[in-house]
Write a structure and sequence with these properties.
The protein is mainly beta. The protein contains one helix and five strands; from the N terminus they run αβββββ. This is Large ribosomal subunit protein bL19c.
Length: 123
């Protein structure tokens, strides 16, 4: 058990604290830091989260988007210094932990039903 506490103490300062709550089915925009020669820029990557792996510092999300009729998936390390921001654009109502079935769907079939969060009523 000593090694686990040691690993956690090393990982703790590296974990990002300003991340939104990300769920499978969310439409997200991920800002990726791209280095081209001497210059650096932030490239946004927008798509649907189809899988999530939670493992502390090694947590990842798999984001899928369709680009020019071809499905493209990228796996992002959430706590990586290369990720500048993650923004949740909309949430969808899903009943599965992994949305791999979206790989076979095209166009309107690949749409997910939006989840609306209710505001608490003020009296």
């Amino acid at each position: 058990m000593e090694t686990q506490t040691l690993v956690r103490s090393i990982e703790k300062p590296l974990l990002k604290t300003n991340l939104p709550t990300i769920r499978v089915g969310d439409q997200v925009k991920v800002g990726v830091l791209i280095r081209e020669g001497e210059k650096e820029r932030i490239q946004p990557y927008q798509g649907t989260v189809i899988a999530q792996h939670r493992a502390g510092l090694n947590s990842t999300i798999t984001v899928r988007r369709t680009f020019q009729g071809i499905g493209v998936e990228r796996i992002f390390l959430i706590h990586s210094p290369r990720i500048s921001f993650i923004e949740v654009l909309r949430s969808s109502q899903v009943r599965r932990a992994k949305l791999y079935y979206l790989r076979e769907r095209v166009g309107k079939q690949a749409r997910l039903q939006e989840r609306f969060l209710r505001e608490p009523e003020v009296q």
